[in-house]
Amino acid sequence: DKLPVLSQKGDWLQVKFGKQTGWVFKSLVSYKLAQPEAKPVNQAPAAVQKTVYVIATTVNLRTGPGTNYAKVGVARQGQELKVVAQQKASDGKIWYKLANNAWVAGWLVQEKPQVTPVSSQPQDKPEPEPVPNLPPAEQGLYIDIRAIKEGDGTRIKVYANSSVTDQVVLEKQDRQWKVILPGAKLLNPFDGAGQSWPGLELLQVQQLEDDAAGVVLTAVYSSVYAPVLIPGQDGRSLEILVGLGRLQGRTIVIDPGHGGTDPGAIGGVLKVKEKDVNLAIAQRVRRYLAEEGAQIIMTREGDTYPTLAERYTLANDQQAQLFVSIHANSNTSSSVYGSATYYNNENRTSEEIAARLKLAQLIQEEILKIPERKAFGANNGVWLDSRGLAVLRGTRMPSVLVETAFLSNPTEEQLLNDPGFQDQIARAIAQGIIRYFTE
């Protein structure tokens, strides 16, 4: 049944049913409250002609210059928008009117970036090679390995005709890396063994005599940069980076909260489990940080439950530079919403407290750049841990716990179940971490 909503009180909605009125618990229905009337602004739109480009992953287009206007569409990262006017909203922020009469927030777009002049010198980063044409998976596991020099580093790409992510064996000893692909066969011989590769003293690929034994890639790296292995999202590729990215040489532990027999919070409408959302976001954070050269250690890779002590002990034993725990929040009231990041100052020096606070602030700042994300609590949603969270108390390095959104809120539960939103949150967390090391 579709019923008109007359009012809202706490977790209850007053509805009209025929000639009667009554109350319904709002977690048992899907509903949409009317858009509030837009506040008038004093300043008239100023005519302007220019092109801007979307810099956020997704941006809402609205009927007027403010977030209180109704949505009329969405623009995506990199999309070109034609601006015909601009106006300052009542909060002082600039909005752009587009050629199609929709409005977009000025802080979520930028004018066309400068084009880098074409140089007559050889480029450090060549165009990526085309993906090799591999035999069908029915013929067995075939791989092709290619290496590319990129400035001061080397990118090694492993292509496969079927999933290899779960089969890779990685052996480390001193400065030697061995990447073993059991049962694999080389499509083409690797001819780069005799070349000089930036960041590496040795790079060789060996097809073992017994084809069933597989292929071994051996890399001996310099003392400056350790390789970073990034599994491809399709499971059929791997990348090994040496000397690339702003986070090269950094070790970061990402902790997807809960897992296994501990589901964490469970959404009231879609029954989304916190453990699943946490892992999905954490896996995306891992990829974005690994692409910047960081060595990423996950406290769990799947639906398992490491104890709290095992999580922070892992980070301490690996001498990680950062520890980031990812969670989703919950509240007895389904109307509570927002994002928050926690840090701990228990038994810490002033320098250690400052580092933890900086990390929390930068991650939270990036999360609040996501369209319509709001802070939960004061101080932009940065909280001093008063609950004695074990993973924050037990870690020796700077550590934070991120509460991405509320599963108890029906709207935010839908967001947390959306892969696009998961990706936005992951990018924000990764960007906050990058800023921590680079600012």
Distance between the termini: 55 Å
What's the CATH first level of the largest domain?
Answer: Alpha Beta
Helicity level:
10-25%
User: What class would the helix/strand composition place it in?
Assistant: alpha+beta
| Gyration radius, rounded | 25 Å
CATH topology of the largest domain: Aminopeptidase
Low-confidence stretches: 35-42, 113-126
What is the count of distinct domains?
A: 4
Strand order of the largest sheet: 21-20-22-25-23-24
Count of discrete alpha- or pi-helical segments spanning 4 or more residues: 6
Largest sheet: 6 strands, mixed
CATH homologous superfamily of the largest domain - what is it? Zn-dependent exopeptidases
Q: Give the overall pLDDT as a whole number.
A: 87
Beta-strand level of the residues, as a percent range? 25-35%
* SS elements, strand count: 25
Shape: globular
Reported CATH architecture of the largest domain: 3-Layer(aba) Sandwich
InterPro entries: MurNAc-LAA_cat, N-acetylmuramoyl_amidase_3, SH3-like_bac-type
Region (Disordered): 115-137
GO biological process, one term: cell wall organization
Protein name: N-acetylmuramoyl-L-alanine amidase
Question: How do the strands and helices of this protein lay out in sequence?
Answer:
Blueprint lengths: L4 E5 L2 E6 L2 E6 L20 E9 L3 E5 L8 E6 L3 E9 L5 E5 L4 E3 L3 E3 L30 E9 L2 E8 L8 E5 L2 E6 L3 E2 L13 E8 L7 E7 L6 E4 L5 E6 L8 E6 L17 H17 L4 E4 L9 H10 L4 E8 L10 E4 L6 H18 L14 E3 L5 H5 L4 E8 L3 H7 L2 H20 L1
Helix pairs in contact: 1-6, 3-6
Keywords: Cell wall biogenesis/degradation, Hydrolase
Organism: Carboxydocella sporoproducens DSM 16521
Pfam family, one: SH3_3
